[in-house]
Design a protein that fits this description.
By secondary structure, this protein is of the alpha+beta class. The protein has one domain: Histidine kinase-like ATPase, C-terminal domain (Heat Shock Protein 90, 2-Layer Sandwich). Helix content is about 25%, strand content about 25%. It is built from two helices and four strands; from the N terminus they run H-E-E-H-E-E. The chain has a four-stranded antiparallel sheet, with helices on one face. Helix 1 packs antiparallel against helix 2. The longest helix is centred in the first third of the chain and has 17 residues. The radius of gyration is 14 Å and the shape is globular. The protein binds adenosine-5'-diphosphate (ADP) and magnesium ion. Magnesium ion binds next to helix 1.
């Protein structure tokens, strides 16, 4: 359990999982993992898809940004801008680790719920 807005975090996860599936070939793999790290929970969405060139990575969270080389897929390029906004509202950040043709990971942390 974490301290967070359930609706907003659900929206962020939906966008990230949708991307992972959309940008991964049918026989690829999408993994969602949660790891407790001290007082925080690290959430990791990893795929084995086409990846994102390093030069494009700083811009994928901008509105309407879609990476050309990922062969334009359906969408408006708004999903990650919404995810970024949701992270800001939770005072947290999201990190992308990706290599073309190897896949992508999107990682963020939320404060773990502490039982008194
Ligand atoms: N898991 C991923 N694998 C590869 N590329 C991705 C992934 N997630 C996002 N991208 C790239 O970042 C761009 C922005 O993502 P997003 O804002 O969700 O827009 P879209 O509407 O295209 O899904 C995508 O168009 C794609 O180029
Ligand atoms: Mg999207």
């Amino acid at each position: 359990m974490v301290y967070a807005d359930i609706g907003l975090v659900e929206r962020a996860l939906q966008n990230l999982i949708e991307n992972a599936i959309k940008y991964t070939e049918p026989k690829g793999k999408v993994t969602l993992s949660l790891i407790k790290m001290g007082k925080q929970i690290e959430i990791n969405i990893t795929d084995t898809g086409n990846g994102i060139p390093v030069s494009d990575q700083p811009f994928i969270f901008d509105r309407y940004k879609q990476v050309d080389s990922t062969t334009k897929k359906q969408g408006l390029g708004l999903g990650l801008a919404i995810v970024k906004k949701i992270m800001d509202l939770h005072d947290t950040t999201i990190v992308v680790l990706s290599k073309p043709y190897e896949g992508s990971s999107f990682i963020f942390k939320l404060p773990a719920y502490q039982l008194q």
